[in-house]
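Tip: read the tokens left to right.
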């Protein structure tokens, strides 16, 4: 500053300088507060965005805390990670499928790998398809079980208790006959033949005079006596795939079982109630055709395990003729019944030209 400047001007410049410094000092806290406010606003905006995103994707703070994997889930979604679906395990193939029997064609387009239809009186074969193939027969086994128990003339009012030995360890099948339940032999026979009750059938074999091993031996002896050359039994229920037979043999068994009025009555019964402890249990026939007015069924038995496919044997009167029908390894839950319907319509459509020159030899 020059020496000729007035004292008043110098004083004015000093005042301006003081105000400028004061203003600068005052603005520093304000700027710091403003910067802090901006940071807080950014954090709030980010939090709102995350919450909105979580809500849109169905992820809430509660679910994140509950699963303990919310952060990982959100991270996976942000990265576009997609979890692979569980593999579909195909159903195991039956013995007939493995042997290629399903590929066999027939005029009726049956779904069963094996089929046989014979005239019970004349023993003429009306229809046959892989009738000599030996396959697992599932619960068709129970027809032999019932035949032996019935022929033994054991007391049908004798009470039998279901034990742990009767529980299925082969397939893990369910039963409403709990361990400790007591039923009469007659009730067990009814349930085994009508509703294919596995524990009932096993208990019948277990309590047979001589025990289970003796009973199975008698099953095989009876099969040989009937001329069932392709048949082998290892237990009385049919849960084992080692119980095997052919359509030819099963036709012989159906014919023998039909001669027993008790077996005809029990296998065609539509339903049955039993008192087990304080409970009354309702059981139904496994073959819905017994309720169908279009059918006149004299005897029947169904069967299924994966190795055997859907199986069915029947004696029925169609177009005035008594027929024995065997269907083994049918594909589809209702296909065995569909095959029986196809045969019935086929016989009814041409009852006078059904005779063939092929006799049933068994």
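Filled-in amino acids:
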């Amino acid at each position: 500053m020059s020496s000729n400047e007035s004292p008043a001007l110098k004083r004015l410049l000093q005042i301006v300088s003081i105000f400028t410094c004061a203003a600068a000092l005052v603005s520093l806290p304000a700027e710091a507060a403003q910067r802090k406010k901006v940071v807080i606003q950014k954090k709030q905006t980010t939090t709102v965005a995350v919450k909105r995103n979580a809500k849109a994707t169905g992820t809430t703070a509660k679910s994140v805390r509950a699963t303990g994997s919310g952060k990982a889930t959100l991270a996976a979604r942000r990265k576009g990670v997609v979890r692979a679906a569980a593999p579909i395990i195909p159903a195991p193939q039956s013995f007939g499928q493995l042997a290629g029997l399903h590929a066999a064609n027939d005029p009726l387009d049956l779904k069963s790998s094996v089929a046989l239809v014979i005239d019970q009186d004349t023993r003429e074969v009306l229809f046959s398809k892989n009738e000599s193939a030996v396959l697992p027969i599932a619960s068709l086994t129970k027809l032999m079980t019932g035949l032996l128990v019935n022929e033994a003339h054991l007391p049908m009012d004798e009470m039998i208790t279901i034990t742990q030995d009767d529980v299925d360890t082969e397939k893990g099948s369910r039963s409403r006959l709990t361990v400790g339940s007591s039923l009469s032999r007659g009730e067990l026979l009814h349930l085994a033949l009508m509703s294919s009750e596995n524990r009932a059938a096993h208990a019948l074999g277990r309590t047979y005079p001589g025990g289970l091993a003796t009973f199975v031996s008698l099953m095989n002896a009876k099969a040989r006596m009937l001329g069932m050359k392709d048949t082998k039994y290892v237990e009385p229920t049919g849960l084992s795939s080692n119980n095997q037979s052919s359509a030819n043999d099963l036709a012989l068994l159906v014919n023998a079982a039909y001669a027993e009025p008790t077996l005809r009555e029990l296998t065609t019964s539509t339903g049955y109630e039993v008192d087990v402890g304080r409970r009354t249990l309702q059981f139904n026939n496994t073959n819905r055709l017994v309720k169908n007015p279009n059918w006149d069924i004299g005897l029947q038995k169904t069967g299924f395990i994966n190795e055997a496919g859907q199986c069915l044997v029947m004696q029925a009167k169609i177009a005035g003729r008594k027929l024995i029908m065997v269907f083994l390894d049918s594909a589809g839950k209702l296909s065995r019944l569909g095959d029986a319907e196809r045969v019935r319509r086929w016989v009814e459509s041409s009852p006078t030209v059904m005779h063939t020159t092929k006799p049933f030899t068994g």
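Residues 36-40, 45-69 have pLDDT under 50 and may be disordered. The first strand starts at residue 112 and ends at 119.
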